[in-house]
Write a structure and sequence with these properties.
two-stranded antiparallel sheet; two-stranded antiparallel ribbon; 179 residues; 8 helices; mainly alpha
């Protein structure tokens, strides 16, 4: 698969198409993860984690389209697995008494941790002389929680679109402030 480059013009049409394609793929991945989760939790975790990454790409596309994320940042983070996981783990903070002053930050550490768990779900490891098979390190409960969280994130994006016409982080902040 050829990744996009900075030479690719990011038109609204392209970004909207990317958003929809990433959302569709995330839905297919999460459904496949659900089907595998009871008998094969480790591969199901890897699929659910990949679905989460696809949702991050959709969120980034929506944010670029809304002017919340720069095209330079998009091209940098779109190809970095850890950045995509961190992007969904970002925190939006609303200061007391300052409506409209929301700020966001994301923790690279959370992205690293999630990426490490996905790797553990896919690959046999060797730690301190001990063999770690994916089936022994990923539980059914952990994969069910990731599936639930990923579905919730997708639903929140849908909710944002339904209420504001946009899935951008800016739209999510507006919803939060209205509550």
């Amino acid at each position: 698969m050829k990744e996009t480059t900075q030479a690719t013009p990011l038109t609204a049409e392209l970004l909207e198409g990317l958003y929809r394609a990433c959302k569709r793929n995330a839905s297919a991945l999460i459904e496949a993860a659900q089907l595998l989760s009871a008998d094969f939790p480790a591969p199901a975790f890897a699929l659910a984690s990949t679905a989460r990454e696809e949702l991050a790409k959709a969120q980034m596309a929506a944010d670029v389209n809304a002017g919340v994320m720069s095209q330079d940042a998009f091209f940098k983070e779109f190809v970095d697995h850890r950045s995509k996981h961190a992007y969904l783990a970002r925190r939006i903070v609303w200061p007391e008494g300052a409506p409209g002053a929301a700020t966001e930050s994301h923790s690279r550490r959370e992205g690293e941790e999630h990426f490490k768990r996905r790797s553990q779900a896919l690959f046999v490891g060797l730690t301190a002389g001990r063999i770690e098979e994916p089936r022994d390190v990923i539980s059914r409960e952990e994969v069910q929680e990731l599936i639930r969280d990923t579905r919730d994130w997708s639903c929140a994006m849908n909710f944002s679109v339904a209420l504001t016409g946009s899935a951008s982080s800016k739209a999510a902040a507006a919803i939060r402030e209205a509550q």
